[in-house]
Amino acid sequence: MPAVAIRDAIHTIGLTKRFGRTVALDRLDLTVEAGEVFGYLGPNGAGKSTTLRLLLGHLRPTAGQAWIFGRASGDAAAAHRHLAYVPEDVALWPALTGAETLELLADIGPGIDRRYRDELVQRFELEVDRRCGTYSTGNRQKVALVAAFATDVPLLIFDEPAAGLDPLMEQQFRQCIAAAVTRGQTVFLSSHHLAEVDAVCQRVGILREGRLVEVADLNDLRRLRLTEVDVSFRGTPPDLEQLSAVPGVSNVHQLSPSRLSLTLAGPPAAALRILATAEVLALNVREPSLEEIFLEYYGQPAT
Amino acid sequence: MTRFPRLAVRLIRRGFLILLILVPGLSAIVVVQYRYTFADPADAISLQVLAENPAIRVLFGVPVAIDNAGGFTVWRTGTFVAAGLASWALLTATRITRGEEQSGRWGLLLTGRLRLPSVVAHHLAVLLGAQLLLGAALAVALIVAGAGIQGALIYALGFTLIGMLFAAVGTLCAQLVAERRTASGIAAAVLGFALLLRMVSDGVERLAWLSGLTPFGLLAEAEPYAANRLGPLAAMALMVAAVAGLAILAAVHRDVGSGLITGSEIRPGRFRLLRSLPGFAIRRLLPSALGWAAGLCAYFLIIGLVARSLTEFLIENPRFADLAAQAGFAGLATVQGYAAALFALLAIPMGVFAASRLSYDAADEADGRLAVVFSRPLTRSRWALVQIAVLVAAIVALAMAAGVATVTGTALAGANLRLTEALAGALNVVPVAVLCLGAAQVAIGWVPQAVLALGAAPAVGGFLLTVLVETFGGPNWLAQLSPFAHLAWVPATAPDWAGAAGMIGISVLLAGLGIAGFARRDLRG
User: Fold this and answer.
1) DSSP secondary-structure letter at B40?
2) ipTM above 0.90?
3) Last residue of a domain, one of B204, B225, B258
4) How many CB atoms lie within 10 A of CB A260?
5) DSSP B265
6) What is the pLDDT confidence band of residue A189, given thresholds at 50, 70 and 90?
7) How many beta-carbon pairs below 8 A join chains A and B?
8) Regarding the domain delimited by A8-221, which CATH topology (the fold level of the hierarchy) does it fall under?
9) Which positions in chain A have a beta carbon within 8 angstroms of at least one beta carbon in chain B?
């Protein structure tokens, strides 16, 4: 077994899962360091849930290995002492109430902060005396989220956590993530809900058809991307030819006698010097949204 | 419009095809068996004497026409085959109605033009149609095997109506409660009660009128191959129409996704038995185990109560032992032998109980309920071991309850059976149920779609194998494959310790193999 740094929350080498002929996950090499909030992005069927279930040892890898804080993912008794998990579609025993389910999960779990759990129940407005059979999708998800956040573990793994939550509860969810980070917990969050990832994650991995196509800091990801610049000015326009010649500048368009647009990659200093030759009234710089970055990876135009 | 029945047909196809072979096949086999066994008129007369035995009457019903092959088949197999068919009908009804609705798949169906009552009605219609086909196949098989036409038609019609009635009962229960398992449980309890009523009405002369309240009694009153009455069948048809009508009516008055009886959605938490894995396993098991215990206790209480009339019968008919042995009921000549024969049957419900509980585990996994549980520091082997241990304890407890119920019955009736004898007889069949548990665990590990079928195989399949080999003969090794070949007639004889040890040993191996498979494979759901 290769040496694995215990401090890495998640580490995988060549992690592969095939279902028959379908390759659900192809040679995933990924490291998530302790303390970070990592967003795992991809459209439906890209292999996000498969990855999570491999990390939990619920699926056996066809090839490769995964470790949770240095413990092999297949060793549930050891690896699961360090994590809590919320699946995408939470299924609970219909005859148990929410409170009973939380109690069960606490008692077979690695330790729990009961006071924080009670606080979470309040914050998520969970009716814990209701039988789980009567819960909506969102309420079932809340039960699992409360159980996970209250568990005293260094790693939280979420699969599409906010799928069934209303905007107010989503807000609570983001606050809980922030609180988890403050406590030093690592969060691994799989999602195609980009606003959520944008709001809470520092680093993202982008998965496409079972392959990890990018892992980057969210800010770096933006910086590497094209920024759209919209300039309004008075009087003589800047020299468009000179502007187009600046490395990194492209798509220069004169929109009206007093307005132009361009796209910019890399540092803006050289372009700004040329723009400054005109009397600039307004400068609108728009970074691409995560959605636009995301769609770029999947070869679709942003609308 | 036509899509809905087609969907329902797809959902019942596999079980239906198996029954389409099994039900007519078994009945035809018994018709042929009759010719082999009772070719000599003297044998037929001794059978007549045997059938007067009250114990036999409780088990098989009142014989009305056992002087011919058809009547004998009805008497010998009617109740058992009809009860089996009724179980399939009610379980299938709750599965394709409440099960599908609970999984959310009906939400899609109901966005179309059809309303809930129509969808329920369509599914029920498919189930009733399936029963009709099974009944037709049964009639053809009986006629082809050489049993008379009129009796075959009456019997097959009654048989069809029993299947239809319990398909309707299952559908009605699926409208009453919002959970499939609860609906199945209630419907199964109705079936158990109907069977008990039949036993009581046949065993206790003063209560004979009760038979008019149960479809099994009505089928007997129709007297296929004897009087061939249509009246009782008409009463059964009315029952079917009433229950089916109630099911549709209930569907009209309820919301999609809920039952007519909503129960309390909100209740204070009960945290006992949630604090540990074994505790949780016991808590999950308890309601159904108590239900099975109630059914088995009622059955064996009646068995015990009847033992007295058996003793009297034995004193009056000293030649009975010879006759019984000739007819393949050796051992029924003493209360101990009678108890032993009935305790052997106990292996079947206990085995089915064990297999069905593990099949619920498999369903929990497929529905994703185990995903969160298995994200906790808990190995799958430990989970499986705990479930098995709790189930073994439950099987032993069920056996002891059946033993105590029997002895309560014999004590009340003044028959001579000691508590230790009854307990020994009931516990004697525990290895067969444990074998079912082992087989079910193998299925969980390697073929999780077939837990109930594989798990019930040692008890149900073994019993059928024994009956078939006894009827038609066969190589010794084939007979030895059945667990029942390794059961001694306790308390009439001493236990077969080697057989018991062998079955337990095989169960342990099977469980180990199953747990190993479960720990290594991908989790479903």
Assistant:
1) S
2) no
3) B258
4) 21
5) S
6) very high
7) 101
8) Rossmann fold (3.40.50)
9) 53, 56, 58-60, 76-78, 80-81, 83-87, 89-95, 97, 99-100, 103-105, 107-110, 127-131, 133-134, 144, 147, 157
